[in-house]
Design brief:
Elements (H helix, E strand, L loop, with lengths): L5 H6 L13 H12 L10 E6 L2 H11 L15 E8 L3 H10 L3 H19 L3 E5 L4 H7 L6 E10 L26
Antiparallel strand pairs: 1-2, 2-4, 3-4
Helix pairs in contact: 2-5
This protein binds flavin mononucleotide.
Length: 184
Amino acid sequence: MIIDIITPILERRSVRKFAERPVEREKILTCLHAAQLAPSAENVQPWRFIVIDDPAVRDAFSKQVFSGIYSATRWAAKAPVLIALAADRNIIAHGVAAALQKIPYYMIDIGICGEHIVLQAQHMGLGSCWIGWFNARKADTFFRLPAKMRICELIALGYPEKSHAPRNKKLKNGGNMIQFNTWT
Ligand SMILES: Cc1cc2nc3c(=O)[nH]c(=O)nc-3n(C[C@H](O)[C@H](O)[C@H](O)COP(=O)(O)O)c2cc1C
């Protein structure tokens, strides 16, 4: 299906309050299909997705990862779905590039595939919010991830509690972030 990509980009905003309506697995899988079509350095596709849509698992997980200094993110404990974006950090192609260029490519890949998720979600009427403020060490331990894997980010997903008008987003520096052919 051809989608008009600018519409979900314009309409998306972070949603932190969700209706108590479960999200259909089919829609979650569509988001994750979109995620897996994302580009990745050397096409290594280093991502793995752990979908948390069982309220009991979500509650136990949330208790671990949104406590203490991370309690500002407690709102996410009520999200119908949390998707943990895990990355394989041990991929040789990434290792060489990362060593030479000092760039953690797996993080870039995770960022791109995650954005595919939120835009696909927006297109299907779902709200989402990226979550970086959580106890990542406890998240890895909760799922007993092998040492090479790391949960880099979470994405909360669900039907928004109320509909939001697209926000007139204030761009930093008045949106003046672009230069052609020079740096001044
Ligand atoms: C990598 C990343 C991590 C984020 N972590 C959090 C978070 O831990 N908690 C939160 O409430 N929002 C988080 N956000 C959402 C941002 O606060 C939000 O995207 C930003 O304020 C812009 O608002 P918008 O998404 O509505 O355009 C995160 C966003 C990104 C991209």
